[in-house]
Design a protein that fits this description.
- The protein is an alpha+beta fold.
- The protein has a single domain, classed as Alpha-Beta Complex (Nucleoside Triphosphate Pyrophosphohydrolase), CATH 3.90.79.
- Helix content is 18%, strand content 36%.
- Strands 3, 4, 5, 6, 7, 8, 9, 10 and 11 form a nine-stranded mixed β-sheet that branches. The chain has a two-stranded antiparallel ribbon with strand order 1-2.
- Strand 10 and strand 11 form a beta hairpin.
- It starts with 5 loop residues before the first strand and ends in a 5-residue tail after the last helix.
- 36% of the residues are buried.
- The model has no long low-confidence stretch (mean pLDDT 93).
Length: 209
């Protein structure tokens, strides 16, 4: 997103206070809206590997698709992130809401990112190799981890134990090849809500405990 794009901003209570440029929002640490979509399958959770030149969290693993909601946009407009980043189109009624979560990133290089993240999940059983239309500029690739592995990653990332994190197995797809890899929580963009949604992602995927 360009720095001159406009975002709605909110106070600590979640009340709308105005509209500001994206660069000013991140400079001042204003609360703003984001859309996160988690794609799940029976055999796991699909993570996005952010491109290495992203200004925030380069090369980290993130939600399947995620991005800001622009000023005046409704929550369902966030579905454009799935189309832009993953090259797939979903109907909003196909999604299950997993709530709105307050996420504040650690300050870095003068950037203060505070988001009210509208979180959704959708079940999509297509094989990993069929994700061929993802944006190679924004997304370095996709990583599939099973549900137990995601729970481990989510818990350790949220607890701040990434430096001594467990290693889990995953499958990485760069648009050309699938490779078996190892992943730990230090690679995951941290968010306190992640352990809370892990059981829901399992349920939406049709996996019984």
């Amino acid at each position: 997103m360009a720095d001159d794009e406009l975002l709605d901003v909110f106070d600590e209570r979640g009340w709308h206070t105005g509209v500001k440029r994206r660069d000013a929002v991140h400079r001042d640490g204003d609360w703003h809206l984001a859309f996160h979509l988690w794609v799940v399958r029976t055999d796991g959770v699909l993570l996005q590997r952010r491109a290495p030149d992203k200004s925030s969290w380069p090369s980290f693993l993130d939600a399947s698709a995620a991005g800001h909601l622009l000023a005046g946009e409704a929550v369902q407009d966030g579905l454009r992130e799935a189309e832009e980043e993953l090259g797939t189109v979903y109907v909003f009624d196909e999604l299950e809401s997993l709530g709105v979560h307050r996420v504040a990133d650690p300050e870095r290089s003068g950037i203060v990112n505070r988001e009210l993240q509208h979180v959704f999940a959708v079940r999509d059983e297509r094989p990993l190799q069929e994700w061929t239309a993802f944006d190679r500029v924004e997304v370095a690739g996709l990583v599939l981890v099973d549900h137990d592995a995601f729970t481990t990653l989510a818990t350790e990332a949220a607890d701040g134990n990434a430096s001594s994190a467990s290693t889990v197995r995953g499958r990485a797809w760069d648009g050309t090849d699938v490779q078996d890899i190892e992943v730990d929580a230090s690679e995951l963009v941290p968010a306190p809500y992640l352990p809370l949604i892990a059981p829901d992602l399992r349920r939406i995927a049709g996996v019984t405990i």
